[in-house]
Design goal:
Length: 191
């Protein structure tokens, strides 16, 4: 198995020239295309992906330990398939539409300036998570642990307080509507 430490990869098209299977530590991937690639059983430790397309890549038993994604296109990824040992990621200005974190434990995860449209967070542990200026349109929160999570600057979420654990979570006044959607009530915000 290949071991790579501290290298920078720029404009790699892994769909044509696959990245050797192995462990990548403290590496930076910039403007790379991993779309529909099989990244199963790869290990990424303290790596950073910048402006990469990782959409619909296979992540079966992929290790993501302290990995940062910035300005990445990451449509339809199944993070629940990743190796759960040490799973730690953060997202800044990423497109995560239709991705899934089903039943993953992602305490203190950070989503910043990201599109989380139709992302599945069912039965996920998001204790202490930060959702900073994220669009959560049609994101699915069912039996999700959101204790101490921060949604104050995010929008378009719909979270049922009766089926999710939201103790000590933070919401803005305007975001309260996202907690009352199921009641189909109208709230006048002009007064």
């Amino acid at each position: 198995m290949t071991y790579v430490d501290g290298e920078s990869f720029d404009k790699i098209n892994a769909t044509e020239n696959p990245l050797p299977r192995g462990e990548y530590e403290q590496c930076t991937f910039t403007n790379c295309n991993f779309s529909q690639c099989d990244l199963s059983e790869y290990k990424f430790v303290e790596c950073e992906f910048v402006r990469c397309n990782i959409s619909v890549a296979k992540l079966v038993m992929t290790a993501l330990r302290d990995v940062k994604f910035k300005d990445c296109k990451m449509l339809g990824l199944r993070f629940e398939d990743c190796n759960e040992f040490g799973l730690s990621v953060s997202f800044d200005s990423c497109l995560l539409t239709m991705s899934s974190f089903y039943r993953t434990k992602m305490s203190n995860i950070v989503f910043k300036d990201s599109l989380l449209k139709e992302v599945d967070f069912t039965e996920c542990d998001l204790t202490g998570a930060t959702f900073d200026n994220c669009d959560c349109t049609s994101a699915l929160f069912e039996r999700t642990i959101l204790e101490k999570a921060d949604f104050r600057t995010s929008f378009n979420y719909s979270i049922d307080p009766e089926t999710n654990s939201i103790k000590k979570a933070k919401f803005s006044f305007s975001g309260i509507l996202g907690l009352l959607n199921k009641y189909d009530i109208e709230i006048d915000t002009t007064r």
